[in-house]
Design goal:
The chain is of the alpha/beta class. The chain contains 16 helices and 20 strands. A hairpin with a 2-residue loop joins β5 (129-132) and β6. The mean pLDDT is 98. Bound molecules: NADPH dihydro-nicotinamide-adenine-dinucleotide phosphate. NADPH dihydro-nicotinamide-adenine-dinucleotide phosphate binds next to α8, β10 and α9. Residues 18-474 form the Aldehyde dehydrogenase domain.
Length: 485
């Protein structure tokens, strides 16, 4: 049975839906039609207080649970999410406009992978013993306390789970604020957590615009802030968290390079570029939007790309035959259109696309520019839409230098049949999540996150544990204390 997009309340706190209509209205728009599907309200100061108090109380008890028992709750939540994958995917499609064909395999499934992985890892989290002759040191790995998660709108379910699973596994509580553009699915995850046995108040969801996030970040009860968002927001949140020396994870934007050498297997390289530019209609932080193609291969690459873009099926995202959806919002569509205009004005060659698609909804054609140079706006700024820039290069050294000439460092990819070159090049690219003969794979087992202006900290993998726990050491002297006087 499908979920009603209108939730029973805007927020989920202490194991129940909460509403306070005094908060600013949030209109939830289905991007495929432009029609309102739900109305929520931003959290008022009273709601924020309720959420933080609930989280603080629940965390104290949760931290005393054995890690194995904590892990069992997460694993059970993962199972429930899998059982309800279709309902959750349909809701995610309504929230984001992403085709059901995608959400069925990439959203609740990725969220449940994280819950399952960290559920399994929980029981293995220990301190260590360090022998120093007769004396010794032991370490205590402990939770941070109340964590705040703030999400972007492109992968709302995945972002909520990627933050919450390691946080809870380590014994923390979470107050999560989704983007106000996509507020629906996090509420369902909160329901599922309680159903799976999480204490009420352990995972709370509050809705709101940036100022709700800002007041969560500065609250003295909050020990850690994990943001997925743009680099400018990241700088603001990082600075606000620094006031009280809070822990942070910043998963920010990028302008990632994808380098295609002339010995690459053409169809795989084109496939990688398609995944890295047009999946989720290009609304993915790690996208390889600067596609550097070795000069001899540029025209064959563009020809094959155009042919394969003929396979785009845009339309009703609930139709599982549709593989291409709208922009998340009219605002985002306008932002992307402005970048397309700049691309044309600054002299890039429009190979295909560039326009809005006919009909209701915020659909933009998959757009490819060639003859793009490094100084053009479309090659420098994150667009967050279906716009690929193809840049020609001659030598390996040149490709590496130009690929690194960006303040960002989220992802990078290389396509070549030369295995030595693949590793040599990837080693020199300044990016956190890299790919060889592939693009945008993000299994929970692999660390995910950026270097340079793309962020700090890592999500997923064992690395995430270090960002949701702290280690204290205890020195144990077995003999007498020697003091100078
Ligand atoms: P924004 O940076 O605009 O917003 C991110 C979140 O932060 C939203 O929930 C937003 O609330 C909130 N926020 C805004 N201002 C503040 C503030 N001062 N204090 C606390 N919270 C605040 O990003 P978008 O939602 O537009 O998402 C797109 C961006 O996210 C892109 O740059 C993309 O690259 C990045 N991203 C990064 C990923 C990664 O893992 N590296 C993955 C996905 C996206 P509100 O929306 O109400 O303003």
């Amino acid at each position: 049975m499908s979920y009603d997009p209108q939730p029973a309340g805007s927020h989920y706190i202490g194991g129940a839906y909460v509403e306070d209509k005094a908060g600013a209205e949030i209109a939830v728009i289905y991007p495929a039609t432009g029609k309102r599907i739900a109305t929520l309200h931003a959290a008022t100061p009273a709601v924020i207080e309720q959420a933080l108090a609930a989280a603080e109380a629940a965390q104290k008890d949760w931290a005393k649970w054995s890690p194995r028992e904590r892990g069992r709750v997460l694993t059970r939540a993962a199972q429930i999410m899998r059982e309800r994958n279709r309902e959750l995917s349909e809701l995610e499609t309504l929230d984001t406009g992403k085709p059901l064909q995608e959400t069925l395999v990439a959203d609740a499934t990725s969220g449940s992978d994280a819950l399952e992985y960290f559920g399994g890892l929980a029981a293995t989290l220990t301190g260590e013993h360090i022998q120093l002759g007769d004396d010794w040191v032991y370490t205590i790995r402990e939770p941070l306390g109340v964590c705040v998660g703030i999400g972007a709108w492109n992968y709302p379910t995945q972002i909520a789970c990627w933050k919450t699973a390691p946080a809870l596994a380590c014994g923390n509580a979470m107050v999560f604020k989704p983007s106000e553009t996509t507020p629906l699915c996090a509420l369902k995850i909160a329901e599922i957590m309680v159903e799976a046995g999480a204490p009420a108040g352990l995972f709370n969801v509050v809705q709101g615009y940036g100022e709700v996030g800002a007041s969560l970040v500065t609250d003295p009860r909050v020990a850690k802030v994990s943001l997925t968002g743009s680099a400018p927001t990241g700088k603001k949140v990082y600075a606000a968290a620094a006031g009280e020396m809070k822990h942070v994870t910043m998963e920010l934007g990028g302008k990632s390079p994808l380098i295609v050498f002339d010995d690459a297997e053409l169809d795989n390289a084109v496939g990688g570029a398609i995944l890295g530019n047009f999946y989720s209609s290009g609304q993915i932080c790690s996208n390889g939007t600067r596609v550097f193609v070795q000069r001899d291969l540029v025209e064959p690459f563009l020809d094959r790309l155009k042919e394969r873009l003929g396979g785009v099926v845009a339309g009703d995202p609930m139709d599982e035959a549709v593989n291409y959806g709208p922009m998340v919002s009219e605002k985002q569509m306008r932002i992307v259109q402005e970048f397309i205009r700049k691309g044309k004005d600054e002299g890039a060659r429009l190979v295909t696309g560039g326009g809005q698609m006919a009909g209701a909804g915020f659909f933009l054609e998959p757009t490819v520019f060639a003859d793009v140079t490094d100084d053009m706006t479309i090659a420098r700024e994150e667009i967050f839409g279906p716009v690929m820039s193809v840049l020609a290069f001659d030598t390996e050294e040149e490709a590496i230098t130009r690929a690194n000439a960006t303040p960002y460092g989220l992802s990078a990819g290389v396509f070549t049949r030369d295995i030595s070159r693949a590793h040599r090049v990837i080693r020199q690219l300044e990016a956190g999540s890299c790919f060889i003969n592939s693009y945008n794979d993000a299994p929970v087992e692999a660390p995910f996150g950026g270097v340079k202006a793309s962020g700090v900290g890592r999500e997923n993998s064992k690395e995430a544990i270090n960002h949701y726990s702290q280690v204290r050491s205890v020195y144990v002297r077995m003999g007498d204390v020697e003091a100078p006087f």
